[in-house]
Batch of 2 targets.
Target 1
Amino acid sequence: MFAFVFSTIALKSLLDAYVTPRSSATASRNYRLCLYLLTYSGVVFRSELAILVGTITLYLFAAHRISIAKVIIPAGLGGLCIGLLCTIPTDSFFWQSFPLWPEWTAFYYNTIQGHSADWGVSPWHFYFVNALPRLLMNPMIYMVCIPVAIVNLATRESTVQLLIPLLGFVGLYSILPHKEWRFIIYVVPGITATAAAGASWIWTRRSKSAIYTTLSLALVGSVLFSFAASASLLAISSLNYPGGAALDFLHHRIEHPIGRHFQVYFDNLACQTGVTRFLENHDSPQTILDVLETQNLTGQRTWSYLKTEDPDALLDPGFWSSFDYVLAERPEKVIGKWNVIHTVYGFGGVRILKPGEKSSGQAIGHLKHAGVVEISTDVVAKIATSWKNLEGMLRETLLRGWWVEVKMEPKVNILANLGSQKSYKG
């Protein structure tokens, strides 16, 4: 998202350049700023922006809008040099490895060595038929607005100037086997801008004919639909972090003996679903503010954490015996005598319920109602209650028995070491 900020400002500079005369100094300055920001953010934050820099540069050069000497070289060298001066010293210091350029390391590992496929492979058309429609949400964008903007002579040139490099970036990135929507999120503002040109054309002519009136009403309705869908997905997406909820539960909902040191292990799923350094409790003061706020370290609980995936260590019983708690997806993989003291449920998919069909026992809104599991966070509890109330209000009266069930599944278990003498109380 840091890179997204820079890429959006860069697209703004590109639009500013498009509306000024080609040969003017203002246009060249905006083109340079666009390419500089993209290069800088690619060097510092996200290496995939190198492809977006490439597609925009090639298009502008082919369209005779920029020159190598005045725009490409100054912008490229400036973004590269300043970016390297920012990232290498900073990241080398924090990683204690010099010289370190994280984005090059990630690019080399995932792309050149081909390890990105280890995280899953998607078909070549995934971005076009799955990711982009989900990111754009409103179907009127790609079904009506963009086609109108392309067909209309008044908006065609500006639309094509944005779409070609942006969709070229998506097309080239589709060559990589591993695909995630976050890799192409940078194109959303530009595509939305082209759709806005088509929507404006329709809206300003809403009183001229029945077709424009109908399309204008459809635009309004689609915006309301998108807002409702986005709000629902936002609530559902909050259920995707059982690891973070489990760690919060461990720290604040379980009583631990005072004056003890606790060691906790996180497995892969816990780390991928919300466990972050921000949720950890420091085992000692880390900053001047911590020292000032800590009056007496004696009698305090201290914590340390480990999340190694070393296969040899995970098969060693001695490795597991050193931990007091484990956050794990599959308790049977944890060696030793352990007790599952709490299970955090997470999002498990959606299912369309037909009239007369009841929700399963593991549906959000029914978990808390039926007492299947204690919802571990106030936010999830509120979502569960709200979803259940919506079902009661809308399903029979407005939707004639149809409903969308949001399923919940056990995700992360909190395990306590029975061999440890450190007692706990839930």
Target 2
Amino acid sequence: MFNLRRGRRLAVTATPLAIGALLLSACSSGGSEDEGPDVDEGGTLTIANYQFLEPGRGDDLWEAVSGYATENDAVTMERSETPFAQYADKLNTELGAGGGPDVFVIQDAQFATLAEAGLLEPLDDVIEDADLNSTNDDLVVDGEQLGVTWEQVAYALLGNKNVMEQAGIDELPTTVDELIDAGEAVQQTGAAGLGIRHQMGEFDGWYLDFNAWPYGNGGSWSDGEELTIDSPENVAGVEQYQQVIDSGIVPVGDDASTFRTKFKENQLGFIIDNSGAALSFTSDGAITGTDIVSGPLPFDEPGQHQKIVLAVNANSDVKALAKDFVRWFVSEEGQEAIRPPLGASSLATDVPLTDEFSQEHPWAQTFIDVNPETKSTLIEGFETDTKTIMQSVMQAVEKVITQGADPADALEQAQQDASSN
């Protein structure tokens, strides 16, 4: 569960205006005790999610959550759509001013900030009958369940079966050394070996992806109380990352969009990526789900996950209705409705993949299997400062792979920089 440190600097990606609004709200009394009209009275329920704008899947997601209106015909469902790049700022500003949508999805970093500001409604009374899995455990703050898992997205090693067959590779690598050997074999065919982010220009995605390497070596960025950036385990992760970059199997300079396109166009053998990206590879028919093979990350320890959270506005005018939507969402009916459009993500309960989806995407089960053991990309005890701290970490990693800096020295400097901020 979150160990939020009251009074720490808020470091969510948001404008100063939005953060100021949250700080102001955090000094107020929080949400109203009035829960608005009874559930049976109904009303208009506004749900916000940037994913509603995704081509194809967005409409499927809206259709899924609109299933609540079938159970409660007194409710009018209204969708709120904002592009991802503006979503967090807009929501922070609205909530900080006492307004905003009734129910919303947020990334875990924003959840930590809103929880610290007292803007999320406790949900304990509406989830008590749900069979929630462990992905919801870290959404408990000060003993209260302030959110439930919308989806938890894990990482795995993916192989393009077509490229692997051309290179004479029968199985996915299981270690970093095997990955380098396989990548070199793929390069003999004219394709690239391994696609991974490796540039500060993609910081937001890079630091999330990079956690696979230190986590895979048993590392973490804190012990819950103090930062542990320069631990031996983290150094080992950076050394392995450097080993892969130096091997030449990574197409240096390719951003995620470029190497993902190469993968689905049969020009790249392997990729370390999340389940959402894996599903996108088959979206335009260039390759099918059966052209992709998957396996755990090539490390001794589990990797990371990204979590998206469903939460209720503590200042909603229809709070009872909003909380009842969450009750429905975590029910068997709600989870079965949302499962197809969320693909291979782990959900709030252990609702299985559909037979049809599994047959079309045999790679998906790996993500379900590895997800329970993965760790959050938020730094324990420093959740709202994660991005600021990771700036120091990734600048150190950049020096290692571009300037040949010693990994231990670089992380020692990052430890000092992050600790002094």
